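Section 5.1 Outputs to date
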Amino acid sequence: MGSLALAAKITHVPSIWLSLQDGPHHGIRRPAELALRELGRRAHSRGVDTFIIADTHWLNSSGFHVNAKSQHSGSYASHELPHFIRDLPYSYPGDHSLAALIGEEIHAAGLKSLVHDIKDLGLEYGTLVPMHLMNATEPRIRVLPIGCNMYSTIPENLVVGSAIARAVERSDRRVGFLASGSLSHAFPTNALTDKYLNRISSDFHAHMDHVVLRMWTEGRIAEFLEMLPDYNVKCSGEGAMADTAMLFGVLGGAEYVGRGEQLCDYFPSTGTGQVVVDFTVDGLGVRQRRPSSR
């Protein structure tokens, strides 16, 4: 029987990659770098053998997609921001068997699931930037990306998260679930982007992001989930905030009684709100869940 060993909301902003390179932006995201490295250390110390990553840069328009490749390897350049991220080599084992179980459980929950083992299906930077910092130690932890449907609803993604938890329970894996995306996600207009590298687009968005972080660190999860649909709409959720909803679905939804630990200060990046938060899972793993109906 599998278990949930780690669950976190993480940042993947391209400026983290710039921060790692020589040049004028070297070190600008050092707190985020250190937070992701610490999260990776925790994953290894807790025996995580598979990272499931809800990647808001693998955007889908229909259904819920799972990458079932047994091996991910290549060299990445961002189509969105090739001047920020290029020449990023990667090689990680995948998790074909767990991907198949996730697809089965999403389908059993009444949603459309598509499980892919496609040679040319590469990884996106919502996976690659965090993995570069979190998963460099050999042997590398398996990587299992899940796409985010940009037209999905919060309730659907909570169901997907619950389905992922049931699939983990059916497996023999110790899983780290990562919700890879921003808090608020409003970009400035094109003419202003260079001036907003370290600024938020809206004071209202920053205020709401801080409200959310207080809810998480104080364990007010049921209250947060009630406002999540409005938060998604009014603060320009990245990828429909599918990653965040999946995360809390994995954790048990409104019944989750844990809380988040903030691993770096909240920071703005090109108009968006960013953070790394590790949620307690002790005693709240998928072993405690209602058995699968399958």
